[in-house]
Queue: 2 jobs
Job 1
Amino acid sequence: MSGSEFKPVLLGRRGKPNSHKLDTYKADGGYQALAKALAMKDTEVIDVVKASGLRGRGGAGFPTGLKWTFLPKDVQGPIYLCINGDESEPGTFNNRVLIEEDPHQVLEGIVISSFATRATTAYFYLRYEYGRCYRVLKDAIDEMYANNLLGKNILGSGYSLDIHLHRGACAYICGEETGLIESLEGKRAWPRIKPPFPAIEGAFRRPTVVNNVETMACIPHILNHGPEWFMSMGIPKDPNNPRDAGSYGPKLYCISGHVEKPGLVELPMGITARELIDKHAGGVWKGRKAKAVVPGGISMGFMSEKELDTPLDFAGPGRVGCLGLGTAAVIVIDDHTSMVDVLYNACRFFAHESCGQCTPCREGTAWSTKILERIRDGRGKLSDIDLLLEISSSIGTIPGTTICGLADGAAWPMKTAINKFRGEFEEYIKSGRRSESKALAGAH
Amino acid sequence: MSELSPNAKKVIEDHLGRYPSKQAVTLPALHVVQEETGCVSRKAISEIADILELSPAQINDTLSFYGFFRTEEDPLGKKRVWICRSLPCMLRGGEELLAELCSRWGIQPGQTTADGEVTLELAECLGACDGAPCMLVNDELTLRVTADDVEKQVRGNS
């Protein structure tokens, strides 16, 4: 299926009048998937989602149906579903658009997923900055209670569910699933050591599933059209790689930075970065060329211009040295921009957002920022380049020195910027010049 | 006299039934108090702690983790304006916008104008990269802003 023939699924109702209201959602076939799911056994719903190959859209790409099966069987007492709406990865804004434009699509997915996992309470953790989303969701949830789509005995099925909105307080780390759980519990959002994983001991020490907003939006469509339909889109799994789970379904790509038309585009998984920029974002702005492109939020690192034919599926970015697909937030950097300034910006972000719990992350992100400040101030040394590389290979869950992946996200921009643009860093340091960018110093 | 308003107490009470632990109401309680008073005072912390059956230190532990909350020594202005400086906004002038506002208003990020009207904050990614550079006023996003737009919207002049 080529991009030009593709009819949007998740954004199918974007821009329609009153698209956020229950009556228009129902008129477009909304909540039929829920009725269908409620007539099935919970395990059958899990089987459908498993068969679709849906992988979590939040960044890690873990198979959603498989995650649900990790919940213990025959558990006594409550199970919780937490929705991760803490979307904070630089470049990412698809949850914001999904919620503002079509909240019931997400909420229908949440009710179906709660039914499948036997959750009786769902907590929707929403970043504070999305005030409009908060109000849209609040109204939509009220409409659901008034129409027997939430509360006791939903649609006469005997199944009962409450959804509670929970607002964050401007901390990136709350997007890490156990940081989110700690924050929900009213504590500082320090990620937990795993195991135990949330499926065994999560929110309030109960079995818990944490799912992303875009993942939830996919669920009603999978129930309506079936797993085969979902698998007809995207990139099939590599038969020669038993660890590849494939990249199926529609995907929201956020495009920002130096393009003519930044925005949110929905396409079958696997479009190349070049096609996305040229065909769907009006090309690089001002007739310039791309120097580097972030494939999926800054944690994923950078692709160089010659790597832009890489498909943006779960496996593609990893083949060119990036951490992964991440949130599929594509940030384009033009050839007039200094990679020293870009890397400084990325490092400063992680220094600001490190929760401070693990020393390698707290110190590594802060010192990498200071080293780049020094370079930008014309006082860099050539040895700083290898020092940055040493930091980048020492922090994170991959070298095994931190509890969560925030530091891996800090390491990958450093590794890829230096490995792919080393000459630019050397030239910058040798020239002794100072950055023209007006960035205010300090990690704050 | 109680530091918490009747509305704040009601909001806190309403939230208690939503969670299996009282501590989970910490963030909702801090939010309602800061929305009403522009900060969370020590007395408010104690009163929240009493309702949630926690020590004031536990409330303060959570409060101090999130740079979002202000103490009574450092209250917010009437409007809180966040300017995004993360990569997508930086690439389209976010850093220059923040620097320009600092210069026009004579304050640094985190500070409030002398008339107490506006607190200026630097933000990491606000999730509106399709409209970079963007700003958040209290909790409403505005996309594609210039320094003049910001002044017009929050200071009522251009």
Job 2
Amino acid sequence: MTMKRLLVYLSAYKKESILAPLFKMLEASFELLVPLVMADIIDVGVAGRDQGYVLLMGAVLVLLGVVGLVSSVTAQYYAAKAATGFGRRLRQDLFVHINAFSYTEIDRIGTPTLLTRITSDVNLVQNGVNMVLRLFLRSPFIVFGSMIMAFTVDGKAALIFVAVIPLLSAVVFGIMLITMPYYSKAQKQLDGILRRVRENLTGVRVIRAFNRQQDEIAEFTDCVKELRHTQSFVGKISALLNPLTCVLINLGLVAVLWIGGDQVNTGRLQQGEVVALVNYMSQILVELVKLANLIILLTRSMACAKRIAAVLETEPSMTEGNGNFSGGPRAPRVIMEDVSFTYAGAGDAALEHISFRAGRRETVGVIGGTGSGKTTLVNLIARFYDATEGGVLIDGMDVKRYPFARLREKVGVVPQKAVLFSGTIRENMQWGKADATDEEIGAALAAAQAKEIVEGKEDGLDTRILQGGRNLSGGQRQRLTIARALVKKPEILILDDSASALDFATDARLRRAIRDLGWDTTVFLVSQRISTVRNADRILVMDDGRLVGDGTHEELYETCQVYREICLSQMDQKEVSAS
Amino acid sequence: MRKKQAGTVRRVLQAIRRYRFSVVLSILFAAASVVLTLYAPILTGRAVDQILGPGRVDFEALKKIIFEFLIVVAATAIAQWIMNILNNRIAYRVVQDVRCEAFSHLARLPVGYIDAHGHGDIVSRIVTDIDQFSDGLLMGFSQLFTGVVTIFGTLFFMLFTNWQITVVVVVITPLSLFVAKFIAKHTYEMAKLQSETRGELTSFVNEMIGSQKIVKAFGHEAENIETFCEINDRLAEHSLRATFYSSLTNPSTRFVNGLVYAGVGIAGAIAAIHGMLTVGQLTMFLSYANQYTKPFNEISGVITELQTALASAARVFALIDEPEMKAEPENMPALTETDGRVDIEDVAFSYTPDQNLITDLNLHVEPGQRVAIVGPTGCGKSTIINLLMRFYDADSGDIRVSGHSIYEITRHSLREHYGMVLQETWLKSGTIRENIAYGKPDASEEEIVRAAKEAHAHSFIKRMPKGYDTELAEDGGNLSGGQKQLLCIARVMLSLPPMLILDEATSSIDTRTEIRIQRAFTKMMQGRTSFIVAHRLSTIREADVILVMKDGHIIEQGTHQSLLAKNGFYAELYNSQFELS
């Protein structure tokens, strides 16, 4: 099943995937002929003192080499082409597929996992495809080919091959099977060491504040020692591989010489043919070791392939709507009707029976503790998740009926985490509106209190932002992400706790600017700070997934217990009622 | 450059010095195994010479040769096995030694080094680079050694048997080197191109999938797919070339081998016709011809590997050689008792020499006072913590605790007198119990529970699946921000030193937890000198001294009332939070 899912990507390279192993087998066949030609040189050329024959057969050897080289290079080319083409298509499909995921799938699978799937996992699978095309036919072909060729030389001597090959395989694969679990154990221990180093770096202040450096060193030393023990143990086993196989092959050789001697003595074999048998015997070992390595690589690629297939098999849970009805100007901008929502896989509902309406030009504050459902609430408006029950309407139409593009155009979101992308400030600002002019960007920057950031830079809007916005402070990043959302002049603007890194003064100026935007906007201000929401037209108070208050600051302070508590934890009574 | 490499080599030699006996043994056994391996074909050849034709097989001689052959085989196997074991032993022990040394060094490095360097970089030096250097260097060295011995041994045995054929082999060999060099050069260039493009793709994917939610929020998927495909197509093209070129090595090697084989075959057969060589000796030459080019290819591979290994070693030793903190003299007195009085006098400090951050910092804190530090982000609030705890040393000026200069007492004893709760809550992977007892590993069960109760953490801990024995993921991944903060408070609560440094969390803690944390803080601060990086108004107002910082200076200092009356920066900050519009 898994393999089938991925094999599709190889189907465009059918020709290459068939030709590569075929040419490989061709090369192997030529290689298998060499000892026979050599046997003839000895038995016919040397024994018959025929110099011309020797030269002729010598030329044949060179020719075999050239033909072998040509077919092998051809095979390598086809294998590389099929494998890299396979990788390209798989990677592309995976990226497109991930882009179709909704928040639900991203949460469930997790970003780090998605990243390794599309990078190192695909690379390993691509590598596996390449090696399979090249070696999977060649190595067994040489191993068994040698045996069959031995039979063509002499049936009795060939029986030695029948005995040696299984024994050799048992040693090679046996050692591989025994050591594999220990290698993965060692890898786990190494991960533990990595974690400890990282932990000691991030926690350097705490560790030193508690004077625990020596204990940390002792613990680390123990971990390193454990790893060494595992490695030494497995090392001792794999150290047996070379000597054991060498002994086996040479015992085979001894048998070939002894039985061969007997056959020559009775005239059933010639001297050169014994040499051919010796040559076949030594060919086996190299290929068996290659095969063992190939199998290790293959098991790893298979595991990766499975993980990739799992991602590809995950279907996006959200479908796009195609409605184009636009509610009359009198419909409230946002309506939530008895909305409940449960995160996939979670036991308890994150939101329960939420109903509210928000009008055009209204500023709505959303306040509540962590985990109370504030972010979840606004995420439903932007349809990052679908409500489990009830309906979310924008301009009178259910959000599920909107095409994604329309919806994204209407709703501007400034998420908690201020993320900017590498590129110029202008490019970042144009994320919301691809053709935004410098004037439009300038206006958005001004409203977001971010004008000074750009003006402070030598290159203005062309200033490059490093990946993750590393060359900006947290506050600067936040203001720029706000500006980015403002550029497209959204009808609904959601600020999800996105001013936390701003000092009080800037925060206040920002709120004022947002209230005075030049177009009709419904603003949702999510915050933990009373000061941020208290001047909103209305405030929604969230507690444990329920909407426990909906009104102005004054109303809520009088009537809503939770709101009052929040207020009191942040300022004293005199100030609260001072309004 | 060369000199630097020589320095690295010297350090590597120092690292393996302890195992020099094993190294010498390993070299001896390697030489033995190579010589014996090369001797085996000679015996095979001799055996073939006893099998001439019908009725012309000398079974007595054959028996003797086979007996000798078996002994040689057994000896080879044993020599190989001992060599393998010795090599493993050296490699793994060197890794262990260097890793522990590097890690212990971390504990002696100034915090400034760790702040200034990417953690990923340091981690990869201690984890990946050390492995690479040990694998590459020790394995590389043993391969190089056996390779060279094989080449010379083969030449010697061949010359000993028949010099004319040896000449044929020696003449064809350079071809192999030439081919290998050609391929290596192209492979290197292509591989470089491939890994660059791969890096480009990875960094794009990291950025975009890493922030997929924002990509979706802005409906930017189509543009991203377009960019991705463009890079991906380039990558496929570069990978095709890189894969193809690198896969040429084996066929070409086999081809050159085939040529040597054919050359030896023709020359040997002709020599045999003229009676200069027996068929058995020809067999020996053929089996040498089969293996002869192998060490050449290995050696060229080993040299690149050795270079990477040396580069890794250089990175590891660079970390180990980073200057440590100034060692404390043996007789450095310890701070034994303190009343909590802290004086900061004329302190100047900067992280980078050309940029002044703190200048002329003066502050006198009476025992038991609460000091609130406020100001916009980046104004230097956390720098004060760094200086008080001696994570960094002041450039000039002095800080005194109960009259003792903190630069004249041991760091250990100074830190013992401080309890610290930072905004970035750090927890160790381990159980909750271990984390609370972090500052006092021998604490009793009652003490731990009492501390947890006082930090208002007991109730949520009890609700965890395994209570105090619940294992925390790295950095408390399975806890909420507030819970982590409470555990950090419990950790300090257990030992409760006479002076406190607290950094209030700004966000992501719900109201009820916040109230608990504040209560816990208040409880801790009773009768203790405390420095609080404050974000909450109530904390600020209850402080005995408020330090208002801006751009690394204390621009105002006083109580809430006096600062409001002054109508300066503090008043502006305060009013902006609570202004009514």
